[in-house]
Amino acid sequence: MARSSKRNCANANQHFPFLDLPAELRLLVYEHLLVGNEPWRLAAALRNKSNLYPNIIATCRLVQQEATPVLYGCNQFEFTDELVLGAGTQFLKNISHSAQHISSINIDLTMPTKKEIKGLFVLLKKCAALSTLIIGVGVWTSYKAEAFAKAIGPLVRLLHKSQQKKHDLKPRDVLDGLNFSAPHIYGFGQAVIVEQARQDERAATFEEQVKDLLRATFK
Questions:
Q1: I want to staple 143 with a disulfide (CB 3.0 to 4.6 A). Which of 109, 128, 148, 183 is the partner?
Q2: pTM score, two decimals?
Q3: Exposure string (b/e) for 27-36, b if CB count within 10 Å is 16 or more?
Q4: Phi and psi dihedrals of 79, rounded to 5?
Q5: Nearest Cα to Cα of residue 164 among 177, 151, 154, 173
Q6: Mean pLDDT value across residues 197-204
Q7: Helix 82-94 to helix 114-123 angle, to the nearest 10 degrees?
Q8: Does 149 score more than 80 pLDDT?
């Protein structure tokens, strides 16, 4: 029994040589541990993502450098109600420079004030890798196209300039990732289909107008 106990203790003290794996395999491990199937509601914080394991980032500096872009760059983050807005903005402040890796955000608030929206757009300037920004109907319906283009303009132009500096890559059109969602009309029948089509067209028209206004400001 003594030998068995010693053997078990020895096994417990053995560690898998994770850092000896090729970088490509380590990245696959990070994706398995850090990327969720569903978007993150920012109020739900990392600790509530029981199917994810962000603590691996604290293992060592190399793992932190390799895994942080995966954690923030491969998940979509959501602002989906007023309570989440406060938690979400605090989240962006707390993660500091790691926000530069965030690539996808969905802002689907019900009745945000224009001051809240403006403040959020200012914070999103930290997200230099942002390539997908979905604007929910509750956000854009209170604006005219000109006013919304003015509100989001500083953020979009910053992202545009960031793309132009990547001389080794073909610049990405940042406006391709800016999308405006229409409300979902629930129900059945022809009337619902017609109304949904009308709302979709309304969102598409607003999106086109805003993008045309923004593109005219690019230098």
A1: 148
A2: 0.79
A3: eebbeebbee
A4: -110, 110
A5: 173
A6: 94
A7: 20
A8: yes
